[in-house]
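User: Here's a chain of 205 residues. Predict its fold as tokens.
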Amino acid sequence: MARKRYIYLENIFLFTAWLGLLVVPSLGEARGEGGYDVEVHSDASAMTLDEIPSTMSQTIAGEWSDKAGSAGGSHLSAEWKKNPKFYLTLKCVRPAAVTIDLYRSEFEWRAKCKKDSVGAMMGFYLFQGSKGTRESSTVVVDGKRWTETDFVPLHHVGISDLSLPPVFNESYVIMPATWEPNKCGRFLLSVSADCEFTLQGEQES
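Assistant: Prediction complete.
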């Protein structure tokens, strides 16, 4: 009789999302492979656990790095366009409801934020097309042109229910950044939408 083994993953990210809670099991290091089971125990009277199609919800890892020259800081810095960029391509013919969240590990960033709480604040920019200029943004939120989130001294920042029209032969560009340059460390970018899409880093695009 085969024995069933239980492996408890240390790194399980819980994101609040438009579908409720988004659970992302992960290993401590990249490129690890293998099967796993997810069990949820709760005192809630009613609860469902469903797998979200990867074409409608994706999470991708990134890093601000001095070595790669990708810790450019906010738009107040001359090097700000060197931040990591991620390309969001919507596969629909109607405006899509999109939620974007940026996360970083409190364990990794706690000391850095304590040392410089203002400089280590984080946020992200959203542009249509690859030019990446704040002045020509076509993204509108509440009737106003929108280019970036607030920069916050927290480990999560996001925006929900963005209405993004599909763009022909182009992608939206999401660019996470810290407030000041040379603040290095890892982060997670999560995107959910009510239509299929692709999310790629610069090396994949």
